[in-house]
Amino acid sequence: MTPMTAIPSSDILDRFTAIVGEKNAVRDLAEMAPRLVENRGLYRGASPLLLKPGSVEEVAAILKLASETGTPIVPQTGNTGLVGGQTPRADGTDIILSLERMNRIRDIDPVANIIVADAGCILDDIHKAASSVERMFPLSLGSQGSCRIGGNLATNAGGTAVLAYGNMRQLCLGLEVVLPTGEIWNGLRRLKKDNTGYDLRDLFIGSEGTLGVITGAVLKLFPKPLGHQVAFAGLASTEDALKLFEMASNLCGTALTGFELMPRIGVEFTARHIPGVRDPLGQPHDWYALIDISTSDSAETADTMMQSLLERGFEAGLVEDAVIASSEAQRQALWHMRESMSDAQKPEGGSIKHDVSVPVSKIPEFMTTAEKAVLAAIPGARICAFGHLGDGNIHYNISQPVGADKAEFLGRWRDMNEIVHGIVLSLGGSISAEHGIGQLKRDELAAIRPGIEMELMHRIKHAFDPAGIMNPGKVLVG
Amino acid sequence: MTPMTAIPSSDILDRFTAIVGEKNAVRDLAEMAPRLVENRGLYRGASPLLLKPGSVEEVAAILKLASETGTPIVPQTGNTGLVGGQTPRADGTDIILSLERMNRIRDIDPVANIIVADAGCILDDIHKAASSVERMFPLSLGSQGSCRIGGNLATNAGGTAVLAYGNMRQLCLGLEVVLPTGEIWNGLRRLKKDNTGYDLRDLFIGSEGTLGVITGAVLKLFPKPLGHQVAFAGLASTEDALKLFEMASNLCGTALTGFELMPRIGVEFTARHIPGVRDPLGQPHDWYALIDISTSDSAETADTMMQSLLERGFEAGLVEDAVIASSEAQRQALWHMRESMSDAQKPEGGSIKHDVSVPVSKIPEFMTTAEKAVLAAIPGARICAFGHLGDGNIHYNISQPVGADKAEFLGRWRDMNEIVHGIVLSLGGSISAEHGIGQLKRDELAAIRPGIEMELMHRIKHAFDPAGIMNPGKVLVG
Q1: Could you point out which of A318, A391, B71, B279 has its C-alpha 20 to 30 Å from the C-alpha of A158?
Q2: In angstroms, rounded to a whole number, what is the distance separating the alpha carbons of residues A456 and A453?
C-alpha cells in the first residue's frame, strides 16, 4: 500500500507525457510553481511533472500507468483548498494531475433541474450556466471565481448557502470517477431516489482525492428565488444571536437562506482594510448577524418576512439595532463585508485559524469557553470568530496582539489548535467543519478518532487503491 | 467470505442464548413464525434462533461470537421491508437478531432540533416524541405504526415527505453501529457540518444490514409548520401533471411538501374497497394529483399559495377540476385515499409490483411506453401506477385482468419486471427507487450494473465483514 518514494524515472515520466501529449505535460519549474504552493503558503511541495488530460479516457490511462508503476498522483483543480490536500508532498515524488482542461458543461436541463459538468468547470461558470436558463446553483464560496467542481466535490465544500441547500454532498446526484486502477465508474445518475446498493457516490464525495479522481458530476439546480432580502443586526451576545436564529428558523423555515455571525472586531477590521466597506449601524455592538431570506412566491414575501422577524427580534429584546438593505447593491455590500472578513485580518498581522463546528445550541458555550482559554494563553490576542451560526460552523480565527512578533505568534499555532480543538471535542464538535483534513489535520484526526473508525477508513482506502497511488499522505497516515 | 451453510450446533445456539438470557432467546417455531415471513408472503425463511438483545453491548457480543463461529446473522426491526432483506434464508442457517427491545429515546433537544433514538424505536413513537416538544420528524410511510428506525436507516426509507425533506439519509446526522466483528462504532454526532474523513454514515445507511447492525441514531427534527393545505386535482394526462408539478415547484419552493400522482383506476379501487373513501370530484378524470403545501410563517400562507396554484393551473388549462380540503379531517381523508392505494388492489386479484424511478421530466414518456408494452404482453391488465411524481418515483403496479387466473397472472412477474425495468433503464432510471435490493432484486442488480461497481461493493463488503456473517445473500450475490 505504500507507494514508491523515489522520484519517477525519466522513462516513466515520458510514458505519462505520451498519454496527454507534450503540450499538456509541464516539467518547467517556473510554469509549475503556482501549483506547488497552498493558497495561504502553509504547504510547499515539489513535483517532476504536471499533467493536463483532456478526457476521462486520458485520466484513466494516467491512473492505470500510475498503479502499474507505483507512481503517486495528486489530483488538483482550482488549488484553493485550505488544508494542503491538493499540494504535492515535498519529496518530489508526486505527479500532479490537473483537471483544468476538462471544463465542459455536458448538459443542462431546466425542466429536470439538472446540470452535468466536467470536474474542471469553475464554480462561477456553473452559476452563469444555471442563470442562463433561469435557474440557480446554490454553492457559494469566497473562492468561487477560481475553485472548480471536482475540488468542491472532493472536499464536500460548504459555504454560505449550506443552511438552506446543504453541502456539496446534498447538491450532487451522480458522479463519474476514475478509480486508482484506471477503471471508469459511470455513476452519472440523474435520479432523486435510487436505493440500489452501497452509496459509492457519498464515499467519493469528501474523500479528498484519495479514493479516485472525480471527472464529472450531475448537480442539482433550483428555481431562482423571486424574493431576496438581507438585513444586518447589532446584538449584545452570542446567546441573543442563537435565540434570534431560532426565531428566524421558526418564522422562515427553509426561506432562511443565511444566518452569519460576526464579532465587533471583524466589522472593525473590514471597515478599516476593505475598500468600500463601512459599518452600516450608527453605534457599535458586540456581535452582529447577517440575515438572508429568499422566497419562491414573490419579492414582497421576503420583505414582509424580514420586517416581521426584526420586529419580533426588537420586541424580544434580542436586536439592539438593525438595517434592511434597500437595493441589490446594498444586499451585495452587506455580503461583501462578511465575505471579506478573512482577508481583512491579513493587515492585522499573523492569524491562527480554525474551521470548527459544534451543535448549534452550544455555540454560546463554545465562544465563552474558548475566549477565556485563548486569552489566558495569549493575553491581548484578538479573537475574530465568525461564520455560519445556523450550521454550528465557526471560523475561529485569532489575530496576534497589537505589536506582537508575527513569527513568534504563529509559532503558537499548535498550542492554539490544542486549546480550541480540545473545547470543540468536549462539546461533541468537529475539528474540520468544511475545509477537510488534507495534510493539515491528518495526524490530529488519527489521534482523536476511535481506532475502529480509522481502521475502517484504512480498509476502504486499501480496497479502492491497493497500490496506494492516490494522493498519498492526505487524510490518512501512511 | 462465505459463511457456514450448516445449521448452527446446539452448543453454538446455547452460547448465543447465554448472551441475552433464556427469556430473550426464542427457539419456539410458533412464536418465531411471524418473523420468518415477508410482509406480502414473497419470502419464507427458517431460523434456529431469534435473539432479542437489550443493549448495544449484547449486540456486540452476538456479532463477535457470530464472526468467530461463522454463524450468519439477519438483523430485523419492524419486519415491514418489501424486498426480503429482513427475512432469513430458507436453509435454516441464519440467526435472527431483533432490535425490538432496544426502543428507548435516548435524548430529545428541541433547541438543537435533534432526537437520539435506539434503532428499535417505532417510527410513530418518534413522531409522537417530536410532537411532544412542538417539533416534527418528517419521515412518513404507510407502515409507520410498526416499522422501526433501524430498518428505516438500513433501507434509506423514502415515503411521502421526500420531496421537501429528503430520504432517511438526509434526516440522519449520526449513527451507532456494531460491526460484524463485534466492535462498536460510535458515530453519534450531532453536527450539521463535519468534513473529517470518509463518509461512513452514508455507507451504512442503505446497506440493508450487510455491513453492520445499526443500534442508534441522531435524527433531525423540524419546526412544526404553521400552515398546511391539501388539494386534490383532476387532470387529463401525465404531461399536464408534470407541468403542474413544475408550476407548483416554482411557486411554492420548499413549501411544496407533497405532489402525488394517481390514475383513475386507483381512485376507483380505493372508492370501491376502502371504507370511508369516496371520489371527491363530481366527474371522472384520467389522472389525479394530490398536492400538499406546508408553510412555516402562518396558516394563511398555505391557503393563499394553494388557491394561487390552482388558479394558475386552471388558467393554463392543466387542472380540469379540483377541491381544497376545508378541514383537518378532509386533509387526512385525501391522504388516506393515496395511502390506501396499495391495499385497495388486493381485492382486485393478483398484483405485480415495481418500485422504480426515472428523471422527473421523463415520467410521461415512461408511463406511455410502459403502458403500451404491458398491455401488449397482457391484454386487459389493469395498470395502477401511482406515486411520488415530484421524486420521479412511481409504484408501477399491475393488477390482473378481470376474471383472469391469479396464479397464472402472478407467474408473469418476471416477464413484467423485464419489460418495465427495461424501459426504466433505457430512460436512465432505477429498478429500486426506495424499497432497496434485499433478495428480490439482488440478481437483477448484478446483471444490470457495471462490473466495476459490483466489484467495489464486494470489496467494501469484504473489508467490513471478512467472515461474511452479516445478512448474507442480501444485496450482493455470494
Answers
A1: A318
A2: 5
